[in-house]
Design goal:
Urease, subunit C, domain 1, alpha/beta
Length: about 110
């Protein structure tokens, strides 16, 4: 059940949403810093991620990041937010992997 909820969240945030009427705020999760191949100690705990018009517009700590008025607030406490988690090379010449990624909601390349 948690996986299905997480995947729906990814699809909702990752889809083009030019007509999105209100911002989305992911609050309380841990943003994983992937800049050092997963060895970084700069993960951002108790973070806020703001998505406006289908784009991430702000990332920071809960104390430092203002949640826009009227935003849909999604409690991400105890969850991890990982930027760009997919392997684009896995789908080269492999339709089975491409189908599996699409089934799981990954549509970016």
């Amino acid at each position: 059940m948690r996986i299905a909820t997480f995947l729906l969240l990814i699809v909702a945030i990752g889809s083009p949403q030019d007509n999105q009427s209100r911002p989305i705020a992911l609050v309380g999760g841990t943003v994983i810093d992937v800049s050092a191949s997963g060895t970084s100690t700069r993960d951002l705990r108790d973070a806020v991620v703001i998505v406006e018009h289908g784009r991430i517009t702000s990332v920071g700590t809960r104390r430092a990041t203002k949640i826009p008025r009227g935003a849909e607030v999604i409690d991400a406490t105890g969850k991890f937010i990982v930027p760009g988690l997919h392997d684009v090379f896995a789908t080269i010449d492999n339709q089975a992997f491409a189908n599996a990624f699409l089934y799981m909601g990954v549509t970016a390349t």
